[in-house]
Amino acid sequence: MPDLFIFAVAIHRASISDLAAQLNLSVSTVSRALSNHSRISDATKQRVWELARQLHYQPNHLAAALRKGRSNTLGLVIPHIDGQFFALVVKGIETVANQAGFNIMICQSNEKVAQERKNIAALLNAQVDGILVSLSLSTHDFQHLDEVRRRGIPLVFFDRIMESAQVSAVVLDDYQGGYDAVSHLLDQGCQRIAHLGGPQHLNICKNRFKGYTDALQSYNCPIDPALIHFSDLSMQDGRDGMGILLRQAPDLDGVFACNDLALVGAMQMVKQQGLRIPQDVALAGFSNELFDSLTEPMLTSVDQRCEEMGQTAVQMLLDMIAAGDQTLTPRHVVLQPTLLVRESSQRNPFA
Amino acid sequence: MPDLFIFAVAIHRASISDLAAQLNLSVSTVSRALSNHSRISDATKQRVWELARQLHYQPNHLAAALRKGRSNTLGLVIPHIDGQFFALVVKGIETVANQAGFNIMICQSNEKVAQERKNIAALLNAQVDGILVSLSLSTHDFQHLDEVRRRGIPLVFFDRIMESAQVSAVVLDDYQGGYDAVSHLLDQGCQRIAHLGGPQHLNICKNRFKGYTDALQSYNCPIDPALIHFSDLSMQDGRDGMGILLRQAPDLDGVFACNDLALVGAMQMVKQQGLRIPQDVALAGFSNELFDSLTEPMLTSVDQRCEEMGQTAVQMLLDMIAAGDQTLTPRHVVLQPTLLVRESSQRNPFA
DNA sequence: ATGAAAGCGCTAACAG
DNA sequence: CTGTTAGCGCTTTCAT
């Protein structure tokens, strides 16, 4: 039954031992030839490569992974993938990782610790060689992350980090970003600058807030609790928060928001109240989202060097993996932000 | 040297045979107990589970995958992850896949066939159990995808598909979406509706365009080449295209764009020319991007049921995987779009 | 320069 | 209900 035979041949996935059999070589020789081992004769290598090509040989990664105890896969846990920031970070990560021959497994926590825990478990289960994490809004305890380290799996945080000095991380200088944004507002003549802040257990929100207060202080501006409102920073939160702030402090003339989603909500509320931007209220945010240039007025925002952050973080992780057991001392990389001034805060075009 | 011993114990990853040894059972019994096999006594199961817990036993997925010839991982290839559409599709896919115990490996082609080919190769290499693909803009030939099917790996397309009837796919009814959008513009009194179209080898662009022409015809409107402009649909393309259209046909009074990025570019150009939206030119697009509600005016757009598309696509893939060899006839699912009317096209608020 | 053999950790016949 | 055995496909000593 020749038809069936052909079918069988077509469907069969060639393995190293198949090659070995057909070439009258041992599996070890073929294996070495395929990995271009130095002590295999060029002649043999050619024969092996040729047949491998002919048979469409594809290495079984799973088997190699099992044998070597390495999957060549990295895990990535992010709060969510929509929005410019994480999308770009992911791009940076993928680029570097793929170049190094690693695949990426991406998980979204949707800002929930519970989901984050499941994500971590799934990644450990999938035997990833290392994990990159940006924490969810609701992550207060870190047992699931300690577990990762307990197992000796290299771990790198980025952006939203666990602040113990014990882990490697790459972050933006959020403090500086906040400081720059608020200084800029002050330079534009703002006297009563409000802040739409995020959860203060998150390093990024805490530091941006500190940048805000410090900038005010260095300009000898008082810090007024009536000008400060904390929330989870959704667009709706921004709108509501702005409403509250305007009621508490009708004389406010500037807003620094911890992210652009909240800022755009605030913008809507400001416009709804019939106030002019930036003349009556100047606006600055954080993240440089795509929509910042699409609103009217266009929104001033702090750029976060997303792709660079991703690239730096994987590189760190790859270094840790390469270093193996010898636990390197945790490194922290801090990237410098850039303030992008747009219409929402530019009072004097010639300033 | 007790210290060293303790260290060794702490670091060792317990395996099934470790459990077996400590319990005086065979590996197979332990294996069966762990997977809650029906023919293992409850007493034994309890003993096994208890010890597994104590030793923090974690199954080695890689080994199981090798043995079973299944990695429980799915591959996903998308053009890019920024923007609302793919982000939401990914969310839908992850939800369903995780529930079914599958992990996802996400790759971005960045709209380049070359990268898409690499992505596919990487996924095959990683031994995924099935692949989901949305084609890149520049994909004209499909060898890399044929290769997937040649290897018997289940394959499902979504949104941007290969139009041979031989593959399973889930798409939006783009034709209907285009038809609805243009009908709506006509209902608003537009007589000279322009189209910013995308590459016509892509099913989505072709079908949206066809929706445009058919809607015009059914309203007895002539189809004027001067009102039609094709590009790759970036924001800049939209702006430029709009400039050209306005020069070719100064009397145009409506625009249907194949995506919202191009539409927002067009909007900027229209405003720059001092024309009013929607009174002079009414605008409608496709994708329901986040920024549609942030522009002024807010943009009318066709919603694509992103999450549903993702969920449907994985479900299909999981079915194919479950079905095994017996190649099911390829299925096509077509989701119905919804037109979201906003300010950019609403001429009479009471209409 | 090549081969033999062991084994990564797990599952699944095939016995009892 | 439990045990024995045989691999999945690959890498890697240790020989020669």
From TrEMBL, chains A, B:
| Key words of the record | DNA-binding, Transcription, Transcription regulation
Q: Name one GO molecular function term.
A: DNA binding
**The protein's name in its UniProt record:** LacI family DNA-binding transcriptional regulator
- Superkingdom, taxonomy of origin: Bacteria
HTH lacI-type domain location is 14-68
| Any Pfam family | LacI
Q: Does the keyword DNA-binding apply?
A: yes
Q: Which PANTHER family match?
A: HTH-TYPE TRANSCRIPTIONAL REGULATOR GALS (PTHR30146:SF109), LACI-RELATED TRANSCRIPTIONAL REPRESSOR (PTHR30146)
- Mind telling me which InterPro entries this protein's record contains? HTH_LacI, LacI/GalR-like_sensor, Lambda_DNA-bd_dom_sf, Peripla_BP_I
Q: Which SUPFAM superfamilies match?
A: lambda repressor-like DNA-binding domains (SSF47413), Periplasmic binding protein-like I (SSF53822)
Which SMART domains does this chain map to?
A: HTH_LACI
- Asked if the record carries the keyword Cell inner membrane, the reply is no
